């Protein structure tokens, strides 16, 4: 499948309302003690990661510009690959798979799982030294090292920067 077909398919899926049909009640109303990120693995196993689980993973620092902020920003959080593999999945388990990523506002995007190893994006929990709040694209924002990799500086890759991330389903 070529890139144009993948992008068209992804947009059609998101626009079709299929993502909303998968959603339980809005997580915007969730309590603070609930999971920050839910991961559904190919086996159907569901993992719920709380803020302390995210904090316990090794964090990375990434300084880059974004299309949605002014100037260079510094982000901190774990690599996406570390989050995905923290429950026992391995790179071979995820190779060639896709990740349906959902935001608090029910926006969804399908991202190749291989991006986690090919580009080293992080799940940013902090921006410029401050924890990210929902109103600031938090609590989790998938951030790619855009300034460090020319191939990440295009509209197709920019679509993958999902903020207010709360759920990943491995397809």
From TrEMBL:
Signal peptide location: 1-32
Domain annotation Oxidoreductase molybdopterin-binding: ranges: 63-145
Domain of life, source organism: Bacteria
Record keywords: Plasmid, Signal
Protein name: Oxidoreductase molybdopterin-binding domain-containing protein
Species of the source: Paracoccus denitrificans (strain Pd 1222)
């Amino acid at each position: 499948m070529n890139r144009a077909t993948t992008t068209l398919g992804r947009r059609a899926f998101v626009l079709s309302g299929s993502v909303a049909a998968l959603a339980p009640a809005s997580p915007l109303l969730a309590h603070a003690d609930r999971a920050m990120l839910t991961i559904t693995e190919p086996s159907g196993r569901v993992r719920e990661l709380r803020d302390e689980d995210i904090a316990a993973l090794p964090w990375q620092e990434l300084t880059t510009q974004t299309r949605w902020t002014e100037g260079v920003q510094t982000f901190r959080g774990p690599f996406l690959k570390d989050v995905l593999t923290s429950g026992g999945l391995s790179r071979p388990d995820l190779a060639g798979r896709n990740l349906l990523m959902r935001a608090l506002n029910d926006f969804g995007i399908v991202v190749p799982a291989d991006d986690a190893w090919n580009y080293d994006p992080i799940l940013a929990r902090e921006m410029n030294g401050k924890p990210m709040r929902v109103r600031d694209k938090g609590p989790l924002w998938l951030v790619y090292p855009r300034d460090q990799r020319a191939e990440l500086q295009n509209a197709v890759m920019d679509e993958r920067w999902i903020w207010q991330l709360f759920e990943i389903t491995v397809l």
